[in-house]
């Protein structure tokens, strides 16, 4: 029986299309800029990050617990502005995603872990609505990778068979569950390699 053609492409955002929104490097940069003690911040972050990325607490609530639990010499708005402006595009892969979207051959969706305010900012800032028709973001569906539930939700929302889907992520741990569900998976290791890997499963602009 011939393999079914790929009809749906799911894309991680941080590490694939943009840099990470609020991962280790971004947190360290912001904390250093505002002279916040990382050792004091980290356990507070770890206590709330799951709820933060599931959209169960707002950015203000997150910052109240992790940064502004005591007086600071800077404002919450200054810190939030820094967080937002840490985002940068990965221009080659973003252009390739646009190319695939504009071909009209595929359903295009993001599938990522991200807090609501940062996710919405990045969607708007980088014109994702012109590329993707669906955003399966942890903050919108209250589920996170690498748990299987978020991938099942993505399949339900697109009404796509696993065998007709491909998921692209830079982290191997996030590829295990979708592969077990029957999806094709590709670990992001640069745009040219991604283009070649997709071509091998019949995905071309």
Considering the chains and any ligands shown, give keywords for the structure.
205 residues, alpha/beta, Rossmann fold, DNA polymerase, domain 1, 10 helices, 47% helix
Description:
By secondary structure, the protein is an alpha/beta fold. The chain folds into two domains: 8-20 and 88-200, 3-Layer(aba) Sandwich (Rossmann fold), CATH 3.40.50; 24-85, DNA polymerase, domain 1. It is built from ten helices and five strands. It has helices at 24-33, 38-53, 59-66, 76-85, 91-103, 116-125, 138-141, 148-158, 176-180, 191-200; strands spanning 8-11, 107-112, 134-137, 165-169, 184-187. It has a five-stranded parallel β-sheet with strand order 3-2-1-4-5, sandwiched between helices. Helix 9 (176-180) links the parallel strand 4 (165-169) and strand 5 (184-187). Helix 2 runs antiparallel to helix 3 (59-66). The radius of gyration is 18 Å and the shape is elongated. The mean pLDDT is 97.
Shape by Cα distribution:
elongated
Span between N and C termini? 25 Å
Helix content: 40-55%
* Rg: 18 Å
Tally of strands: 5
Structural class: alpha/beta
Average per-residue pLDDT, rounded, comes to 97
Number of helices: 10
- What ranges have pLDDT less than 50 throughout 5 or more consecutive residues? none
Estimated share of beta-strand residues: 5-15%
Please write the CATH class name of the largest domain.
Alpha Beta
Arrangement of strands in the largest sheet: 3-2-1-4-5
Brief description of this entry?
By secondary structure, this protein is of the alpha/beta class.
